[in-house]
Amino acid sequence: MKLHLRSHTGEKPYSCGECDYRTADHNSLRRHRMRHSGEHPYKCPYCSYSSIQCSTYKVHLKSKHPDKSDDKVYNCDQCLFKTVRKETYLTHLAEHKVKKAAAPIQTEEPDTTSEAKPPIVSGSSSGSATIV
Fold this sequence. Notes:
By secondary structure, this protein is an alpha+beta fold. Helix content is 39%, strand content 14%.
């Protein structure tokens, strides 16, 4: 919410120590600093491309290497989560396991929404009964 409010007030409390860049978002400053350091953590395994942001890396893979990009994106089979980092994917899967282990055990309860009906007994004059 603070970040949204800053878009209205123009407040930019985060500033770069190497240039005049200022921003309202600490993540924008983190990415900006990577420009000065030359750090590009997302490196394409198929060409010399590298990127500061995961989102631009994914766009690169899909546009420049469409036949190979599915190999480099990890998709969770339990939700819509996607990542290009194997470590992040494994951490995400572990979170599913923790949630599953912490969830209460579901037991099947008898249906109490409708009254149980007694079996229909059909009798004969000989005194024997048949359950229908």
